[in-house]
Amino acid sequence: MTHSLEKFISSLEQLLFLTVSAFFALIPLFIWHPVTKFLRVVFFDLLGLRKKVVFKNLKIAFPEWTQVKRKKCAQKSFELFLLNMIEFLRCGFMPVWPGSTIENKELLESTQMQARERGTTTVGVVFHMSNWEAVGQTLWRHGFKNSTISKSAGSPFADRFLTFLRQRNGMGSMLISGAKGSVYRQILGCIADGRLIGFPMDQHRYGSPYIDFLGKPATTNESFVTIQQRQNLPVLLTYPVRTGLGKGKLVFEPFEVPVKKSTESKEEFSLRLLLEVNKRIADVVRKYPEQYFWLHNRWK
């Protein structure tokens, strides 16, 4: 395939992406909102899409809750998941949470300034809270270059679609591929360029250690520790919080990386750091349970 033909096909593909986004953007969010409730009734309540997984997860995380309370949380969480998707699909033309603010912006600025003085950058511990696509877009609108590690959506076409919309809104995407060391090389590029790094920490990863999360061990990505220690990256807990329809804020909280004890092995230190990460994420999830993404099978 010639270069000019590849470029032509790529342009047609991007036109298709924009057409899809335009369809969702033309319909106001206040109309989409009741649609999400209807879709929740059909797909979650009646057809049971991911229903067993959601209730299993909520029972693990909140064993003290009544079944009625779990049901309300599950239904609201499913509706918000659909709303998150619609907000993202619109972002070819309408940004996700266009008026979003940054809570503790001074903390982010000072942490990043100190990191740049040392020749490194800040890594944000991110997780599937609220509309996670708002993280990169909010940072970009406030003048912060950023990239987030992301898994494949399941097909090259879907990956290109997601990457296109993300890059259109100032968010870099470090896609995990089969090439060994590809993400690490991209991280080194982010450090050189001064880009903030988003590191997802609540995804199942085969071969990783099982660390307590909301009362039950779940695999937790140990490569985070390796990269953080090797590059001496300062860490901030980073998460979005929805405050209304099409509205939200991006929150940064300080995260003190523990000092490795002389008596600790590498493995012991790694487990201690990952346990602290999971504890901090769990605190946020308990604070905003309806906004967490309960549809994925966190405890495989």
Provide structural commentary:
With 300 residues, this protein is α/β, with parallel strands linked by helices. It has one domain: 3-Layer(aba) Sandwich (Glycerol-3-phosphate (1)-acyltransferase). It is built from 10 helices and 9 strands. Strands 1-9-8-2-5-3-4 form a 7-stranded mixed beta sheet. The chain has a two-stranded antiparallel ribbon with strand order 6-7. The protein starts with a helix and ends in a 13-residue tail after the last helix. The model has no long low-confidence stretch (mean pLDDT 95).
Topology readout:
Blueprint: H1 3-26, H2 29-46, H3 51-61, H4 67-89, E1 101-103, H5 105-117, E2 123-126, H6 133-141, E3 146-150, H7 156-168, E4 171-175, H8 182-193, E5 196-200, E6 210-213, E7 216-219, H9 223-231, E8 235-244, E9 247-255, H10 266-287
Parallel strand pairs: 1-9, 2-5, 2-8, 3-4, 3-5
Antiparallel strand pairs: 6-7, 8-9
Helix pairs in contact: 2-4
